[in-house]
Amino acid sequence: xxxHYYESINGGEPACIDEQIPFDISDSWEWVRLxxxxxxxxxxxxxxxxxxxxxxVIAQKCNQWAGFSIDKAQFIAPETLSSYxxxxxxxxxxxxxxxxxxxxxxxxxxxxxxKNPYELAVADSHVTVIRPLRDYVTSLYLFYYFxxxxxxxxxxxxxxxxxxxxxxxxxxxKEYLVPLPxxxxxLRIEQVIRQVSPxxxxxxxxxxxxxxxxxxxxxSLKKSILQHAIQGKLVxxxxxxxxxxxxxxxxxxxRAKLGKKAAKSMSRIERRDxxxxxxxxxxxxxxxxxxxxxxxxxxxxxxxxxxIGLWGAGATPSRTHPEYYQGDIPWLKTGDLTDGYITSIxxxxxxxxxxxxxxxxxPVGSVLMAMYGATIGKLGxxxxxxxxxxxxxxxxxxxxxxxxxxxxxxxxxxxxxxxxGEGGAQxxxxxxKIVNSFIAIPPTREQERxxxxxxxxxxxxxx
Length: 463
Prior knowledge:
Adenine-n6-DNA-methyltransferase TaqI, Chain A, domain 2; four-stranded antiparallel beta sheet; 10 helices; alpha+beta; globular; five-stranded mixed beta sheet
């Protein structure tokens, strides 16, 4: 029997919230708003710093996925301690959630008083302090939940702000839905995670060594060929090719005509004699020369992935509605990605799901990329229209951009994407990080030559 979820706000009429429920839970569990499980949720405040090392201030850099580190803290001026209300003084097993920035947003740590050699500690304005009601939920259970990919993979999409500064609002934090097991089961979950973590690490090492022995030579060769291709070293340059900068100007016009369907460009990239610069719409600029992964030929150009195609993440229709899964529209999960053309997808959804949920139909030729879990960075190209789950990102390239070139570029940069996603219980990378990553764009004709050369080379390697 399928469950439906209803919520009554301030005594009002209960409203169905099935669409907000990210996954199914056991009958003995309940979905609960985070604010109903806590005695205190509040952002820290901006401190007046002091060289006197007496009262540490917990900032974003103190909260690492590897654990909490007091060594990275600065200190407040001792005379300002009286301006801090009692509840602002950190308590043992408070959760500290990084709530601003790119790259650090969403990182969480558990504050342990025994790891603080000082009398007390407070949080700064970039960190949200979450104090659970210990009779109902444990801090470690909440930590494990918020560290998992179903939360971390969409954290930037649920935050406010621009590409320069993301912020997880206090109201968003308070309203997060948490799957709540019985207390005894929370403790069992914690125990199992602690027990299996070392074993998973040991297994991963053995599996990795075996894979390296079996695949190191062909994998290394393929990686080397891909790197040469995306750096303009695989096929000869043709000076008469139309420069990629002209192609990007046409794409900008195409994006402008699409309006809200295309992500608004907040910047452009300009190459100069003294470096490469990211220029924002407000006229400010940043030297990104050192951030670019390699040098490119003169006729090429740098762009952000979000500027060369339409990008979108998928969704999982609620399984509490069986009618959503009684259809013939292919619905892809990241395990279905093959690092090649997608010719079959085992699961499907209905037209009703397409109409009533946030799932979207991707056209033939869409380039798909897994965003988290064991399949992070895995790729595919659709040979028929299909939908995907939320762990998959889809790109429909604009005119002049070959989908196979995007596919090979993403494959060549897979290691970089995996590194960006490291840190949580599982690696994960959001759509926001993907679309803001740089891509080297060759002229259209050279893209065609690169794709043809790679396809022939890999076909020979697999023969």
